[in-house]
Specification:
Strand order of the largest sheet: 1-2
Helix content: 55-70%
Largest sheet: 2 strands, antiparallel
Radius of gyration: 25 Å
Number of helices: 4
Structural class: mainly alpha
Strand content: under 5%
């Protein structure tokens, strides 16, 4: 870099100088990750995003999955339960477990997908989110097992 010391100072950047920040062309390769991050990404079978479009797709699918889960949990299933009760079918002993098993399995799938999204995006809270999701997954798995034993 050279600087002209006169009243009208001019700064020239040398060719090949260090990048000025993230997203600057010339950065090569994946970001450096800890051994734990590399292991988690391997277990979750994640690949490196190839650009901004991949990151956009990750979050677009995240919104779609969340919307689907919320519609199912808060609109469709309560509506079905209401109709079921009005029809007088609410006393059948296997109805709850028959609905609980697929919903629980679907919830577990969504939880795994959410963990994958956090790690794919290299979110700074990925480990805390993974711990929370794993805790929820243990509880949901226990409920699914209970429903399976009720059906057997």
């Amino acid at each position: 870099m050279s600087v002209d010391g006169g009243a009208n100072s001019v700064i020239d950047l040398e060719v090949g100088s260090a990048p000025l920040g993230p997203g600057v062309a010339g950065l090569a390769g994946p970001p450096s990750r800890s051994a734990a991050d590399r292991f988690a990404r391997k277990v979750l079978r994640l690949r490196e995003p190839t650009g901004d479009q991949d990151v956009h797709n990750i979050f677009s699918s995240s919104i779609a999955l969340s919307a689907t889960r919320c519609l199912l949990s808060y609109i469709v299933l309560p509506g079905l339960a209401l109709v079921w009760g009005v029809l007088g079918l609410g006393t059948l002993p296997l109805v709850g477990p028959a609905i609980g098993v697929p919903v629980g399995v679907l919830a577990l799938v969504f939880d795994v997908k959410a963990i994958r999204r956090f790690f794919q995006a290299d979110h700074r809270w990925r480990w805390a989110a993974a711990a929370l999701y794993l805790t929820v997954m243990v509880m949901v798995a226990a409920l699914v097992l209970r429903d399976i034993f009720r059906l057997a």
